[in-house]
What we know:
The protein is mainly α and about 300 residues long. The protein is built from 9 helices and 5 strands. The strands form 2 sheets. It has a 3-stranded antiparallel beta sheet with strand order 3-5-4. Strands 1-2 form a two-stranded parallel sheet.
Amino acid sequence: xxxxxxxxxxxxxxxxxxxxxxxxxxxxxxxxxxxxxxxxxxxxxxxxxxxxxxxxxxxxxxxxxxxxxxxxxxxxxxxxxxxxxxxxxxxxxxxxxxxxxxxxxxxxxxxxxxxxxxxxxxxxxxxxxxxxxxxxxxxxxxxxxxxxxxxxxxxxxxxxxxxxxxxxxxxxxxxxxxxxxxxxxxxxxxxxxxxxxxxxxxxxxxxxxxxxxxxxxxxxxxxxxxxxxxxxxxxxxxxxxxxxxxxxxxxxxxxxxxxxxxxxxxxxxxxxxxxxxxxxxxxxxxxxxxxxxxxxxxxxxxxxxxxxxxx
Length: 311
């Protein structure tokens, strides 16, 4: 090893001295041509000589570095081999991950999309069934009222109306009955005439008309209030369904924020419709706020709609 290094150093130095000799020879030839003034041509030739000298110096430095690395090769080779092995191991892991991702995209992704589509279809079917069940209950209630009206005058059983005030309901036997009953409260009577509707700004109304707003009130908002307070004022022992019991507890907790005001929450309206409140429903709620039928407020992150028609 030492002999090789000495030989390399000797070779480098001999190469260096040969370069210096060539430079000295060029200078001697230059002097033999006579003493002349330094011209632009001679300056360019001197620049070429300096550039050649710099290249030779760089080459000598690279050769010295090469021989130093050669001397350290026995110490470097194991580390390089270990790095190479780690590189191969990482490459194998990357190839496996790429293969798994390709397999997921080709085989499992389509199944995943299909599962999501089935879930969405089932959700739509459930919402449709809920709407149909609600329609059947309304039809049944109407038929019962019609049957009651068709009874003869001399009958011992008279048709009873379910319209009452909330204060009367709280004192009635209905609050202790377990069987749910469709009730209608006079507290939530309302009327929107054309003059009031025309007072709503056009940018807020959009394409909505009075009939659509009235239908929204009759089928969503008023039933939402009536169902909430029908359950809220029931005795706890009369609430046997676990889902209704959970809602009964939530309603009673919410009432502490507005003890003397009738209200529903955004979640109550969404639960009544069977879907989230979208932009179109939000426009209807804005119009009802403009007509001073509802008032929107927030409490502990929950959106409340207060009934203020009779306020």
